[in-house]
Design brief:
By secondary structure, this protein is α+β, with helices and mostly antiparallel strands. The strands form 2 sheets. A two-stranded antiparallel sheet has the order 1-4. A two-stranded antiparallel ribbon has the order 2-3. The longest helix has 18 residues. The radius of gyration is 18 Å and the shape is elongated. The model has no long low-confidence stretch (mean pLDDT 82).
Amino acid sequence: LVREVNDMEGTAPELQKRARKVFEGILPNLGIGWIPPLWKQYIQPYVPQWISNYSFFLVFFLLFPWLMGPMEGDDHKEVEVPKSWRSVLPFLPETVRVPQSVKAERCRF
C-alpha cells in the first residue's frame, strides 16, 4: 500500500499528504485508536519525558517498518539503571542508552 502511494504520480507535497492519510487511518483501523488519548491522559503526565520518547520510538520501530522503511534510534539519552535492579541482576550496566527519536531513511512524512 505504501509503495503504491509512494509510486503514484504527483509532487512531493501531494504524495506526503496521501501518505499521511494512510498513516492517520492506521491506528483506528487496527482497533487501537484509543491508545494515544489514554496514554496522553493517564500515563504521560506521570512518567519522565525519556520514557514517553522511548515509547514513541518503540511504537514506530516495532509496528511501522513497513510504512516508514528502515529505521534506527537517534538522540540517545543515558539513563541510570536503578541500583536495586543491579543488586538483583548484577550483570546489568550502570546506565543504558535509550533512543529518544526515530531516524527513518525513506519516510514520506
